[in-house]
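Quick one:
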Amino acid sequence: MTDTPTAQAPTQDEKLQKVLARAGIGSRREMERWIAAGRVMVNEKTAALGDRVTWRDRVSVDGKPVELQSAKDTQRRVLIYNKPEGEIVTRSDPEGRPTVFDKLPRLKGERWIAVGRLDINTAGLLLFTTDGELANALMHPASQIEREYAVRVMGHVTMDHVNAMHQGVLLEDGMARFTDIQEFGGEGINSWYHVVIMEGRNREVRRLWESQGLRVNRLKRVRFGNVFLPPALRAGMWMEMPQTDMNGLSQFAGLRPKKAPRRLPKEQERFDRQAKRQRTRRHA
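Output:
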C-alpha cells in the first residue's frame, strides 16, 4: 500500500487592514480609512475595503512596499528604554540629531516600533516592540491608558491651579485635564509634581501647566499603563521586558499573550553583550 502525499496547507488569507496593522503601519481603523482613500495597493492594483491578502502578496502604502508577516511568524518582543533629553523619536533626522533608535539592538528581518512619542525635551519611559498589533493596541485613543510624568515646575503653584487642571482646561486642540496631581516637594521656586494624563497629545503636559502661567523646566515619563520605569535603568539605556511582564502587558492591551521567539545563538550572544555593557555602565 503506497502512502498518499499530504497536501500542503494553503496559505491563510486575512483582512488587509489587519495585516497592515500587524506590520506596524497604523491601527485597523486607520488602515480602513487609508484603503478607502486609495492609498494602498495590492499586487499593483488599488485595494478596496474587504480585500483579503496573505503574507505572500505584494502590498504598498503610498507607493512604499510593506513587509508582511504571517500571524504565526509575528514576533512579540518589548524593550523598555530610558530616553534622555535631546533625542527625537524618529528613525532618521535630516538635521542629524540623535534618535531613540540609534542605541537599540539591531534585529534581522524585523524592526522596533515605538509605542507613542516623547518630544525632544522630554525624558523617561519609552516602549518599543516588534509587534505592530501590540503597538497599535497600546496607542489607540480608545485604550485610555494612563501616562504618569514627573514634572518640575517653576512658579508658585496654588490650589486654584491644581483644581483647574483637574477639572479641565480648553487648549487650542480641545479640552485637556490631569486625572491625578501629587506634589513631591522641591526647593525655592521649583517644585516637583507627579501628574497622570490619559492621552498623548503633542506637549499636552507642558501646555496644561503653561495654561496656568507656570513653566515646566523638567519633564520625565515614569509610567505607561502597568509599566514603570525601572530605577536602575539609566538614561540612554534599554532592557528587554521579561516574558511574564510581557504577558501582563499583552493582557493589559486586550491581546492574548504570545511567547517570545527563541533567539538564534548569534542573536542571543549579541543581546547578552549589549546587556553586559549596560550593566557595566550602570555600576561604573
